[in-house]
Design goal:
It contains 14 helices and nine strands. The chain is an alpha+beta fold.
């Protein structure tokens, strides 16, 4: 293999590019000695580095650096990559720089992964451009396909247990585990909060002192886990509307009714009848208090239920059509469009990934 890992200083890992530039520096990356090996220490953090201009080595490296391995395609004679990793307990942050064109297929895993663009050109499946301010979530059965051209990005990998603990400490969940409900951030302010948290973590890990401060290091994973829960809709943040003390009782009853009957053929008239209000009054409550409509809210609950069934199913035991109809989606094509808009991939892809990993 042309490239492997080598010990690097904490300061090198924490460096960040100027986000105003169009891509990484044009200097070619030289291969490092095959005899180099990652160095483990008793410190609170571990730093590794790899770089290569060999296409075969690039594919081998990314296949082995992640579990499941990333698949790399679309390389040209000018493609090159560098990879700097910092491990700190339940948290791993990689600084990846790509020269030339390169495509990554990022499979779903049991960890929570966020791709944070820093510079250059990065697109996701479907041809959507991702700006330097837009994190890309890969979690809960969701995969990701990246198209890069002269790009630099962070790969933030977090153990799922870290998120489950933060969610449970904040508010005991009704579900055994916390799951994300949408790959799109909740708001621009939530994205800015994520950026502030990530910048703090990377600057902290860049300090040489941090390696000898395990108590500080131990707090970084929970910080990012909490930032992600604030940034993206999840069962931790969206499930407890009925427990809000300032929520009108009629709205609590409406939300509870929707969750109990989401898999049945019910509409706004049924919701209104259940809470003894007119359909217009129910519409007003949802708009005023939740910023959505009863129909949109019910659609989100149904999509979440279908997503969990797709993650828990296999192609030998069920089909996308069966799951869609089970959750009130009569037209599979329309369901597929809504599912892709919410989770960033087709329901067939989610079901196939679950089958291949089982």
């Amino acid at each position: 293999m042309t490239s492997t890992t080598e010990k690097t200083s904490p300061g090198a890992v924490g460096q960040r590019p100027d986000t105003t530039q169009s891509g990484p520096a044009p200097a070619r990356l030289a291969p490092v000695d095959d005899s180099a090996r990652p160095v483990r220490s008793s410190a609170a953090t571990r730093y590794d580095q790899a770089r290569t201009i060999d296409s075969r080595a690039v594919r081998q490296f990314f296949a082995g650096a992640y579990s499941p391995g990333w698949r790399v395609a679309g390389l040209t004679s000018r493609s090159a990559a560098s990879h700097r990793r910092c491990e700190a307990g339940l948290l791993t942050i990689d600084d990846v720089m790509v020269q030339g064109r390169m495509a990554f297929e990022v499979p779903a895993s049991d960890r929570i992964v966020v791709i944070q663009p820093r510079a250059g050109s990065i697109g996701v499946a479907g041809g959507q451009y991702v700006g330097v301010d837009a994190p890309v979530l890969v979690a809960d059965g969701m995969s990701c396909a990246l198209q890069c051209n002269g790009a630099r990005f962070d790969v933030v990998s977090l153990a799922a247990d870290a998120m489950h603990k933060v969610a449970a400490d904040w508010r005991p969940p009704r579900l055994a585990q916390t799951h994300f409900l949408d790959w799109r951030p909740r708001s621009r302010s939530a994205v800015r909060a994520w950026h502030r948290a990530l910048d703090y973590v990377t600057l902290t890990l860049a300090s040489a002192d941090t390696a000898q401060q395990p108590l500080i290091t131990a707090g970084l994973a929970p910080l990012l886990a909490g930032s992600l829960l604030e940034c993206y809709p999840s069962t931790a943040t969206e499930q407890d509307l009925t427990d809000e003390p300032e929520m009108p009782e009629s709205l609590k009853d409406a939300v509870s009714f929707i969750h109990r009957h989401a898999a049945r053929e019910v509409g706004i008239n049924d919701v209104a009848a259940a809470v003894h209000l007119t359909p217009r009054a129910v519409q007003y409550l949802f708009r005023r208090r939740l910023g959505t409509t009863p129909t949109e809210y019910m659609r989100g609950v149904r999509l979440s239920g279908a997503h969990q069934d797709l993650i828990g199913g296999t192609t030998s035991s069920t089909t996308v059509t069966e799951i869609a109809q089970r959750w009130g989606f009569a037209h599979t094509g329309r369901f597929a469009v809504l599912y892709r808009q919410t989770y960033g991939q087709s329901p067939h892809t989610t079901l196939r990934q679950t089958t291949s990993s089982s």
